[in-house]
Every structure is written in C-alpha cells, then in structure tokens.
Amino acid sequence: MSAIDNVDILRKIGKANREEFSKDFSVWCKTIFESMSNEYVSSLEAEQSNVTSRVARNIRPRTNDENRMRMEGFQSSIQLEKDKTRREQVSSGINAHFDWKEFLCKSALLPEEVATRYALTFPRIFGDNPQVIRRKSLELMGIPEQYIQKILRAAVLLKDNTEMKE
Closest Cα to residue 128, out of 163, 88, 156, 162? Predict the structure, then answer.
C-alpha cells in the first residue's frame, strides 16, 4: 500500500460520518502501521545488506592482511632479538644457570605471579644472561612499561654488582 492510498483513506474518513469513521478507523490504523512497518523494515534490511557487503568486500581482507604483516614483523623482530642475545651470550662465555624467577622477584621486585610467568619465557630469549636484556625485547614481549623499568633497573644493578666483584 502506498502513501497515495493512505491519503485517499484519510479523505474518505474526513467525509464519512461517525459510524463509517469508527468502522474504517481500525482498518486505516492497521493499514498505516503495516505500510510503515514494511517500508521501514525493508529499508533497514537493504541498508544492513549494503553495510555487510561493504565490510566483507573492503574492511575484512585489509584487516587480515595488516594483521598478518604485523605478526610477521613481530616474529621477525623477536627472532632478531633472540639471535642478538645468543651472539652476546656466546661472546661473553656465560654458561651458568641463572634463576630468572629469583631475579624478577627479588631484584626487579615484580609480583610473584608475574615473575613466575616471565621466568618461563626469559631463558628462551635471554638465555642465562640478564645483562643482555634490552628495552626493545621487553616491549616486543608485551611486558607493561612499569615492569620494563623495574627489570632494566635490576639488570643494571646486577651488572654493576658483578663488575665490582671482579
């Protein structure tokens, strides 16, 4: 039913007497409601379909590509840091086992649950040498800034203490 049909019904109601008006009014209300609902719902469905197709066509592939490229870059950076750390370890000749959990808890003053989590990954990245810890490595690992500062401070203090003993 179109808007022109609704106008015709309105004119009819205007001319009708009270009995006709009350009889036609409920039909008119139902007609108006159905007409408005159908137009509104169909326009919403069309818009939703347009938005969905635009998102699927434009945004999704670009997001996946960007995520893939970022992940590859992140993995490359981590690998470079690991390689650099290993080279530094080999050149410094450090082979002794280092207790990362103790270092992170007692020297860096990190909460125990945080230290336990990081103590599992630090040996794979830094080996047994806290002196090779770099800010960039910690950032790439996703460690929060508040912990990065504590870890770096503890590493510097440990290096200073080690040099003083030698």
Answer: 88
